[in-house]
Amino acid sequence: MRHIRPEPGTFPPYYENYYRHIPAGADPLEMLAVQPTALHQLLAGMSEEQAAFRYAPGKWSIKQVVLHIADSERIFAYRALRFARGDAQELHGFDENTYADASGADNRTLTDLLAEYAAVRQASLALFRGFQAEQFDLQGRANQNPASVRALLYVLAGHEAHHLHVLAERYLPLLKAEA
To answer: Where is the DinB-like domain (predicted)?
Structure first.
C-alpha cells in the first residue's frame, strides 16, 4: 500500500522534484531504512575540513546538507503526524536557507551531525511504520498546499535521494580534485 505513488492534487507540484528520485514500485519506507547506509558510505573517511566544503560561493557546506536533511525530515514527519491524527489546521512553511544559516552545523563535528541524523531517521521510521494503511491517504495543508501522509513519506525518501545525488555529483568530484 505504501508503494502506491501519491496522486496529483495530494501534494505540491514541486514535490515532483523529489519523487523522480524514487524508482517506480519502490517502497519509500524501505528507502528510508537503507539511506543512512548510503549517506555514511558517501561521507566515510571525510575530514572535518572536507565536511565544511562548499562547492560554490553561497552554497551549503556538506555539514549543512546533512543537518538540512535531518531538519527537513523533522518538519515533514511532524506534518505527517498532524495529518494522520486528523489535525485540520493549516501548517506554515519554512525557509530552508534560514534554517541552514542558523543551524551552527559548521561548528559541530560530522560524527555528531550524523548521529543526530540517525536518531531523526529512527524516529521517522517508527512513526511511519506505526500508521495504519488508511492513514496514508489522510491529508492536510502546509505552506498553502495540500499534502497527504503518503506524499510526505515519499517526499522524505525523495528529498534525501536528491541530496545524496547532489553530494555525489557536485561536492565529491571537487573534493577529489583538490586532494
So the answer is: 34-166
